[in-house]
Amino acid sequence: MTDLLSRVLSRRTARTSDAAPPKGPRESTWRLCKELSPLLRLLILTQLAFNIGFYAVLPFLAEHLGTAIGMAGWLVGFVLGLRTFSQQGLFVVGGWLVDRFGVRPVVLAGCVLRIAGFAWLGYAEASWTVIGAVLVIGFAAALFSPAVESEVARQAVAWEEDGRGPRTRVLALFSVAGQAGAFVGPLLGALLLAVDFRTACLAGVAVFVLVLAGHLWLMPQHIPGRVRVRGRGGARVLLRNRRFLALCCAYGTYLLAYNQLYLALPDEVQRAAGSQAPLSWLFALSSVLVVFTQLPVTRWAGDRLDLRRSMSAGLLLIASGFVVVAAARPAGWTGTAGLLPAAGFVILLTVGQMLVVPAARAWVPDLAEEGRLGLYMGALSSVSGLIVLAGSAATGFLLDLGLPAAVPWLVLAAVPALAVAVLPRREKGAGAAA
């Protein structure tokens, strides 16, 4: 009884301290980092470094393939699609390998493959060599990401069970690190491209060598509490898990909406500004919002919303972003005024993302089988990726139909709004409130 009372008081104290507004996002981030275990700090810093190395090269790949290699446009698109498939589509394979062999060997293998892939890409001059390098680069992420994401999610649940605060705070910090890497990486790549593309690739290699060395030195051989599963049948049970598949479908609608940054938004910016130059500023706006406001948003949601309500609110905000553009399209504004709806869309989409992503990742441990968190984390990305693949083709068809300007945006708004009804109901006692 005394032990139970002390645990209740410790959780109440943690919630009371969480309720105090931070003095600023930087201080909150630094304070949270100091509270994390060494393993969590390693994994979060690794996510930052991995994204810096990745985004220093990949945003410039299409132009390199078209100009330096001389590939036709369709072949460039095919190569980029292969990279996405070898990464997102194979996350479930990486997750299964994590459950079978543990986090450390899979992370190390992913780092080695990423080093080999980027070095190969830097020297590739023929189409078949580029395709081989891109496949290696994609599969490296399919190994690395499920391993890191599943262990961060497992550690976040332990953090919550210890009464330190909602698990979403840890997962939000993980998102901040990834977004910061996605912001810094292209800036580094742009500087290195002043030399040539090969230099950018070799800089990426150097980053991944440092990541590999860090994990060889700091990653424990066996992580306490992590159980390896050697039996079969996990995939069959997963496919019968309706609540998890419902979560995947809802998360997939978010990813489909996020993909409109690269499909529907460029068309809108081109119409309003006469060029796509403002796109880079809108992408930067999204990254800066995540880096500086993700933790305050997560803290606010953690005091008021459980995981389902957090995802619901995020999906509805994303839907409202599409509605903003749809409502403004009949006016036909151009110039600076014409870009305001696009900026509103980016802001609402990003705030919705900040609610949806940590909540979805925090929910998976409650739905996964014991010992198969890697498989379920990988499946979340793979199933959602299939939804994005089918949905993006449908979106492209919709945009080409010549419908009234507002209609495609209203259809896109309906998708995340309807996904709220798909979200599974949370079982009583399944995890703590987000």
Automatic annotation (TrEMBL):
GO terms for cellular component: plasma membrane. It is a multi-pass membrane protein. Keywords: Cell membrane, Membrane, Transmembrane, Transmembrane helix, Transport. GO terms for molecular function: transmembrane transporter activity. Residues 39-428 form the Major facilitator superfamily (MFS) profile domain. The chain crosses the membrane at residues 39-58, 64-85, 106-124, 130-149, 170-191, 197-218, 244-261, 281-301, 313-333, 339-363, 375-399, 405-423. It comes from the Bacteria. Gene3D superfamilies: MFS general substrate transporter like domains (1.20.1250.20). It is found in: Cell membrane. Pfam families: MFS_1. Residues 8-27 are annotated as: Disordered. This is MFS transporter. It comes from Streptomyces cahuitamycinicus.
